[in-house]
DNA sequence: TTGAAAGCGTTACCAT
DNA sequence: ATGGTAACGCTTTCAA
């Protein structure tokens, strides 16, 4: 059923029907109501592609998914979906990225210039992120999930990684730990740098020298968590505590600690960052995992919300949101073992 | 840059340019080449929404994401994205589902009648799935990831869950296990039923009575894996082996077994289904996890491929693909403990 | 092999 | 408060 046909069945003009359905104020309440009811009854729905053509709006928010199946991603998107429910906006996942940087840029370029999305969300930015420069240059609406150090004014939402890791590290120091290892995220990403800074500042405040041999940067997988922590534990003196970037990393650390005949929470303390997954819970680990905690799903929902505001005309430079991260202490952290105290 | 403007810069008509870019045969090779080069040079790209309106194609495949942040989902989509790279087709994730069944149906209805997608992928079907009936009724192209028992002819791709679990269970029986617990997926989903059947058939073949107290159906989370296995282990006699639906479930089982002072691979054997995640590896667990194994990412890639074929005109009733599942034995499975043998 | 012109189904401007 | 009509940018007959 097309607008013309539908309108003539109602004895109205296409114009009036269109206005009634789009909620324009100048249409009478009575008419609006009748149109709405008949639309449902007769099953009329505007052709989305015609609407898109004429309005220039795509009705979708773009997300570019990295090649590496990030487990965070599904949670974030699920949060977006939650918020976008009821709005007439979809999530468009663009095939591929992460081959090399040039490619990624051209991918963003194609996506935004193709008119398939009204805005995009940029994940895991670098301090000087090319994607941000590109999008700003194109004058295209975007929200950064994470932070950069660019001068370009833009909308962003982020968690306070630096403070979270500083507190986590300080707490370990309070417990008497001196050799604290850190398994961080990928090199060059701002969130990794922030976590590095929080870690180093905490050490420095207490006069503990920074030892680069206790720090790793990589993807968040159980395997890498295992490998790095295993190799750190082979050092002498060995670290008595770990700060880790993800739940998966923590799983690897737990394994490594056990494999050395050590006990988490006693011989080795562990704090990891928990994005709050429904399928893997810090509290349920054995021993339960102390964690810096912030819901990825909530971030996704709020991101969608902010993008909506952006599209609604709110200035990008006004949209900056920094979320506090909880530090939840559980059984995986305890006093540094006596023999390890120097 | 619009077609008209671009065409006039080339000294050609819009018609010819359009044909050249769309690869129509009647345009001369020389012209086609020139048009293609100039398009790149001048940065002309057809307005996607105009194309969509006039062709009636949406250029997107729809996926409906459940409310529960399924960790499988990201891998599947990532596989889709991999295959769709280079094609001019996006993945459209539709906000929400999983509230109640009626709602989900109306959601599918809206999605496909809205013209935003050319096809949809249906996940985790039930034997008599309303979504399949709906889509078939609407004559809308779709691919089912999983199987149903409906008479409606349709395209599907699935793994051989029944055979996988039968082999897994049989193997445990070969090892002397008699009390084998099963932590399966959600009630009512075909894949859960297939796994149930594989499990029961294996028992029956060897004359082992089926005990409903050893079976659970639920979401795949570490917490539920822990809770069910914990409660099973409290039975007397306790089960000596577990068959589990996911890696997360397996994590929970490992914890529960340890919490009882038992040892996986010795006191209790475990086989779980592994969808092959980059961030959590069966081989790396301690002890390494025996698993039925099939790559979710590969399924996603192949699904995208099959949808493309479907849209290319291949009849749906011709598209049935059943993937064999590997059974990989590692350290989590061993002979039933002597004292437990009856 | 190329071009002119008629749609595709809406929205939004300008009238009334 | 309602209606006529010109876009929106492209593809696709129909002609040449």
From TrEMBL, chains A, B:
Signal peptide: none annotated. It holds the Pfam family Peripla_BP_3. GO terms for molecular function: DNA-binding transcription factor activity; transcription cis-regulatory region binding. SMART domains: HTH_LACI (SM00354). The keyword Transcription regulation applies. It comes from the Bacteria. The keyword DNA-binding applies. Residues 1-55 form the HTH lacI-type domain. CDD domains: HTH_LacI (cd01392), PBP1_AglR-like (cd20010). Keywords: DNA-binding, Transcription, Transcription regulation. This is Transcriptional regulator. It comes from Sinorhizobium glycinis.
């Amino acid at each position: 059923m097309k607008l013309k046909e539908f309108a003539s069945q109602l004895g109205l003009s296409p114009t009036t029907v269109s206005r009634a359905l789009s909620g324009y104020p100048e249409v009478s309440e009575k008419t609006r109501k009748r149109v709405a009811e008949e639309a449902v009854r007769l099953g009329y729905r505007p052709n989305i592609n015609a609407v898109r053509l004429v309005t220039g709006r795509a009705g979708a928010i773009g997300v570019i998914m990295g090649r590496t199946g990030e487990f965070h991603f599904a949670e974030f998107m699920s949060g977006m979906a939650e918020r976008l429910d009821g709005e007439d906006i979809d999530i468009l996942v663009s095939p591929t990225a992460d081959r090399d940087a040039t490619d990624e840029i051209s991918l963003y370029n194609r996506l935004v210039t193709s008119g398939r999305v009204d805005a995009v969300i940029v994940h895991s930015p670098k301090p000087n992120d090319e994607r941000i420069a590109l999008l700003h240059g194109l004058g295209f609406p975007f929200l950064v999930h994470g932070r950069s150090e660019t001068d370009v004014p833009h909308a962003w939402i982020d968690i306070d990684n630096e403070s979270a890791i500083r507190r986590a590290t300080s707490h370990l120091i309070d417990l008497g730990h001196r050799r604290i290892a850190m398994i961080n995220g990928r090199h060059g990403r701002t969130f990794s740098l922030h976590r590095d800074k929080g870690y180093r500042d905490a050490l420095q405040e207490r006069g503990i020298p920074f030892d680069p041999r206790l720090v790793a940067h990589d993807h968040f997988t159980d395997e890498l968590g295992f490998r790095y922590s295993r190799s750190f534990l082979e050092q002498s003196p060995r670290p008595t505590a770990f700060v880790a970037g993800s739940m998966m990393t923590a799983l690897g650390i737990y394994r490594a600690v056990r494999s050395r005949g050590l006990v988490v929470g006693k011989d080795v303390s562990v704090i990891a960052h928990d994005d709050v997954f429904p399928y893997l819970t810090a509290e349920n680990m054995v021993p339960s995992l102390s964690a810096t905690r912030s819901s990825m799903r909530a971030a996704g929902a709020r991101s969608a919300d902010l993008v909506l505001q952006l599209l609604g005309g709110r200035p990008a430079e006004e949209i900056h949101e920094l979320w506090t991260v909880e530090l939840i202490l559980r059984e995986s952290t305890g006093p540094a073992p006596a023999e390890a105290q120097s």
